[in-house]
């Protein structure tokens, strides 16, 4: 029986968009049908750049196009940025499957499902770009999500804490405001897409929360204190609010964890507060 890990490695390294989407679908179907095993004679390769098309050109975050909804160019820049996030998220989900071995079988089922849903989101957004005679890759983008994947490749607990629960969870905070502005502008088509994404992303962050806490339990660590420590270590001065509490609670954040985010945000805004 073919190995899930070997199949996922092939998908991760694939650069052509349509092939990556097709492989994502085929791997998910094979896994659900019991045609892939968790056995492999090969260790995961050190993390590097995943397969991606030649475009978009990757630039520093400050150099991406402005995303102001008041103009067509700003709207396209916003949708392109979210499309890029979703494409990265396909690779992130597959890297979680590929990289972290000896996890329970449900871990792999969860992240296979995430990969499928991220691919669906990407296709919805890409079609929306095409509605405006644009395509994914036409604008530059930044690589922040994958950079954090590289930094967390050594430990599934750290990956689950910092990628789904910090970077991807930020989408839970900002998407409702974008939806509201698009509703005011009468763009129901894009609103519907973002509502689908918001619903699914709550589930994705919840999966990250579950496996983060699983890893903490396995090591006898307090998950809330550990989350606080990891945030301070890796995101000092970078925690931004406001936070969408309802969505974050649905995604597995505890009251103490939300208070941690608030405290670290306050410390960021007021450097003179040295108690944190």
Can you describe this structure in just a few lines?
With 276 residues, the chain is mainly alpha-helical.
Question: What does this protein structure show overall?
Answer:
There is one protein chain. The protein is mainly alpha-helical. The chain has one domain: Ferritin (Up-down Bundle). The chain is 66% helix and 1% strand. The protein contains eleven helices and two strands. It has helices spanning 4-13, 17-32, 72-99, 105-131, 144-151, 156-168, 170-184, 188-219, 223-234, 245-250, 255-269; strands at 2-3, 36-37. Mean pLDDT is 92; it is low at 268-276. The longest helix is centred in the last third of the chain and has 32 residues, at 188-219. Helix 2 (17-32) runs antiparallel to helix 4 and helix 7 (170-184) runs antiparallel to helix 8. The chain is globular and about 50 Å long. A two-stranded parallel ribbon has the order 1-2.
What is the element layout, followed by pairings?
Blueprint: E1 2-3, H1 4-13, H2 17-32, E2 36-37, H3 72-99, H4 105-131, H5 144-151, H6 156-168, H7 170-184, H8 188-219, H9 223-234, H10 245-250, H11 255-269
Parallel strand pairs: 1-2
């Amino acid at each position: 029986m073919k190995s899930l890990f070997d199949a996922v490695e092939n998908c991760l390294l694939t650069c052509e968009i349509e092939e990556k989407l097709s492989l994502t679908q085929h791997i998910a179907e094979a896994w659900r049908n019991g045609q892939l095993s968790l056995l492999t004679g090969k260790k995961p390769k050190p993390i590097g750049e995943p397969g991606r098309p030649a475009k978009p050109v990757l630039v520093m975050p400050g150099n991406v196009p402005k995303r102001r909804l008041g103009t067509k160019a700003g709207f396209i820049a916003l949708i392109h940025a979210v499309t890029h996030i979703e494409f990265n998220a396909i690779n992130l989900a597959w890297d979680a499957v590929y990289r972290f071995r000896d996890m329970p079988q449900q871990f792999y089922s969860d992240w296979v499902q995430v990969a499928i849903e991220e691919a669906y989101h990407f296709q919805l957004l890409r079609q929306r770009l095409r509605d405006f005679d644009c395509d994914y890759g036409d604008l530059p983008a930044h690589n922040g999500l994958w950079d954090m994947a590289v930094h967390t490749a050594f430990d599934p607990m750290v990956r689950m804490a910092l990628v789904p629960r910090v970077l991807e969870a930020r989408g839970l905070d900002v998407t409702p405001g974008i939806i509201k502005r698009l509703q005011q502008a009468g763009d129901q088509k894009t609103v519907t897409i973002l509502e689908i994404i918001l619903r699914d992303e709550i589930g994705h962050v919840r999966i990250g929360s579950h496996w983060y806490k699983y890893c903490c339990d396995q090591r006898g660590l307090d998950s809330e204190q550990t989350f606080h420590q990891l945030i301070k270590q890796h995101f000092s001065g970078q925690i931004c609010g406001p936070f969408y509490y309802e969505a974050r609670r649905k995604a597995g954040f505890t009251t103490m964890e939300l208070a941690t985010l608030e405290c670290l945000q306050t410390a960021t805004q007021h450097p003179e507060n040295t108690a944190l």
